[in-house]
Amino acid sequence: MVAVVIIALTAGAFGALAWAVDKYRSTFGAVLPAGAAIVGALVVWMITMAIGLDGSSATAWIPWILSMAVGGVVAWATAGFVGRTRHARFVQRTTEILAMH
Fold first, then answer.
1. Is 62 helix (H, G, I), strand (E, B) or coil?
2. What confidence tens digit (pLDDT) does each residue in 26-65 have?
3. 29: left (phi over 0), alpha (psi -120 to 50) or beta
4. What pLDDT sits at residue 101?
5. Which residues span the domain enclosing 67?
6. How far does the chain reach from its first CA to its final CA, in angstroms?
């Protein structure tokens, strides 16, 4: 159970960092990349535990490292994709509104 908590906290921290350094962070909330990172990390953790990679001392590190790495990748991907997409839509909508007047 401690592993799940540590992985979730680490993934949440990656999500907070991804939100903090994104230049379009005003277009989405801080919880979005953190939540996506936590979900991604814990799904990978559950899969690696179901496969049985925690049984041997030689492979016990894989669920920890792989889950944290996936959490970081998901956080950065979510922040990048959502930020750029929403910013582009916002600019397009603002341009359309300004073109009317």
1. helix
2. 888 999 999 999 999 999 999 999 999 888 888 889 999 9
3. beta
4. 67
5. 2-100
6. 59
